[in-house]
Amino acid sequence: MKKEVKKTISFFEVLINHSQKKYEPSTHHILKRMIIPLCKQFSIIINEGTKNDAWEVISGFAQGCKRIREE
Amino acid sequence: MQTNRKDKRFKIELALAEIVNRLTTQEKETFLQAVNWDELRQLREKVGEKRRYGDPKLYVGTTYNGLSCELPEDKVIDCLSILPEIFSSKEIEISVWNDEERIETSCTSDKFINLLKKYEHFLIEGCTMIECDVFTLISGGGGCISITIERISNKLIKKVAENFLAICGFKQKFSKDKFSAILWNDKLEVEE
């Protein structure tokens, strides 16, 4: 897996993990530490990635979503 | 079993609070005609008590495939520097980036701490991904760190968490595979 793809999927996983914590992180924390990094990764994938990279990112997201449904 | 029942009840209470929160003013008025106000107030206090808001000074907790951590910024390098030894990693790849630059490099475990120090500003105010054959660490900065482990070893996860807490000044041993420790108001609250 390409690094940029892995980074993108990883930040999505971090976001999921934060939503499952027993405390609620501040919106500032979520924005700065997860959403903004994730948005930057989207830009990189769009500007520098291939269609296959985009597909791998979505597939990675889907696996994270599947895990939420199973828990 | 008791814990599961308690967790389930808490989830119902939280879901109910969320639903009430989303009602329109008119719907809330209708809702209040059907429920006892005192009971509703007690429920709100209960939910508020259980669910904390804000960013703790310190947090370590298991995830489905590793560990999620909120570390004090001044302890990030000390904490991360112990990972190669715990995971017996020899070769480590480091990616750091911010708005201006993206750097990818690799090192042997003995040089790892030097690279962490060199790229400290990325660890605090940028993004970092550290990879080796056993684990991947991702961070959006500020001590917000997530570690995923390829072949889950509960023993190693515990070891990392206990060491991180020790570096931050807390002696804690976890006995169960799923756990969390959170620092609120200078008190470490542990759940297993």
3D architecture notes:
- The complex is a heterodimer of chains A (71) and B (192).
- By secondary structure, chain A is mainly alpha-helical.
- Chain A contains 3 helices and 1 strand.
- In chain A, helix 1 runs parallel beside helix 3.
- Chain A is flat.
- The N and C termini of chain A lie far apart (26 Å).
- The longest helix of chain B is centred in the first third of the chain and has 21 residues, at 2-22.
- Chain B contains 8 helices and 10 strands.
- Chain B has a 9-stranded antiparallel sheet with strand order 5-4-6-7-8-3-2-9-10.
- The radius of gyration of chain B is 21 Å and the shape is elongated.
- Chain A binds chain B through residues 3, 6-7, 10-11, 13-14, 17-18, 20-26, 28-29, 32-34, 36-37, 40, 67, 71, and chain B through 50-56, 59, 61, 63-64, 68, 95, 99, 104, 127, 129, 131, 136, 138-142, 144, 146, 148, 180, 182, 191.
Descriptive tags:
A: 71 residues; mainly alpha; B: 192 residues; alpha+beta; nine-stranded antiparallel beta sheet
The mean pLDDT of chain A is 94
Q: How many β-strand runs of chain B?
A: 10
Beta-strand percentage range of chain A: under 5%
**Helix content range of the residues of chain A, please?**
over 70%
Q: Write down the overall geometry of chain A.
A: flat
Gyration radius of chain A (Cα, Å) is 13 Å
Q: Sheet with the most strands of chain A?
A: none
Low-confidence residue ranges of chain B: none
Please name the two chains that share the biggest interface, counting residues whose Cβ lies under 8 Å from a Cβ on the partner chain.
A-B, 26 and 30 residues
Instruction: Give the number of DSSP strands of chain A.
Output: 1
Helix content of chain B: 40-55%
Tally of alpha and pi helices of chain B: 8
Q: Determine the structural class of chain A based on helices, strands and strand pairing.
A: mainly alpha
Going across the biggest sheet of chain B, name each strand in turn. Answer: 5-4-6-7-8-3-2-9-10
List the uncertain runs of chain A: none
What can be said about the biggest beta sheet of chain B? 9 strands, antiparallel
What kind of oligomer do you see? heterodimer
